[in-house]
Amino acid sequence: xxxxxxxxxxxxxYNDGEIKTPVLNALNLEIxxxxxxAIIGQSGCGKSTLLNLLGGMDQPTTGKVMINxxxxxQLSEEAITNLRAQHLGFIYQFHxxxxxxxxxxxxxMPLLIRGDATHLALEKSSKLLSxxxxxxxxxxxxxxxxxxxxxxxxIARALINNPSCLLxxxxxGNLDAKNTQEVLGLMMELNQQQKSAxxxxxxxxxxxxxxxxxxTLENGTLx
Length: 223
Ligand SMILES: Nc1ncnc2c1ncn2[C@@H]1O[C@H](COP(=O)(O)OP(=O)(O)OP(=O)(O)O)[C@@H](O)[C@H]1O
Ligand SMILES: [Mg+2]
Hints:
Layout: E1 5-16, E2 19-31, E3 36-40, H1 47-54, E4 62-67, E5 70-71, H2 77-87, E6 88-91, H3 103-113, H4 118-131, H5 147-159, E7 165-169, H6 177-193, E8 197-201, H7 205-208, E9 213-218, E10 221-222
Parallel strand pairs: 3-8, 3-9, 6-7, 7-8
Antiparallel strand pairs: 1-2, 1-4, 4-5, 9-10
Bound molecules: adenosine-5'-triphosphate and magnesium ion.
Residues 47-48, 93, 169 line the site of magnesium ion.
């Protein structure tokens, strides 16, 4: 079966000159279309590091990551960027919105980058933001939004290109119960209706249990 993401024998150590911090070790993971997976684990165990490797934002120290059967270590920086734009949606632990752009422009950005016509990109983005209750905040910049609103904009940005895999790093960490349900609903809808895979890092066991499976990251590997 076609795996959206597959990684083999993945190892990673941060290397700041003299100090080496090993984080991941001999980690294997596969995810199919329409599957959902929660990753849990203590603070500092390497969950964000793992998602960064899966999304091609960083290169592993050992082992390899494949996205749609393409081995990232064999691709140029530009090819990885294109692969990510085509197949992945990324929700960061800290929203990483562009501060000088409006909510609407932030959400439309992935579509504009891949070359969609501006008016279509803005129309689609405006509809998605309205669907998640932000119709009156389209022209606000991140600094003019609440923490939960920023996170919802970041989620809309990750969903806008209908990714085949969504990588989400504690996407509901800043949200109240109502927004958590809404955001979770959006992600699960994409997962179930569009058969996109979902890899979600969370500290919330109630959320983890809603996924098809959940794994714990411990001593650098998934158990
Ligand atoms: N740039 C860096 N240089 C050195 N060590 C780092 C760097 N970034 C992270 N680390 C270390 O790597 C480990 C894994 O960090 P990571 O951010 O992946 O953890 P996490 O599981 O996402 O934690 P949290 O639940 O708190 O978000 C941590 O112990 C951290 O101290
Ligand atoms: Mg983290």
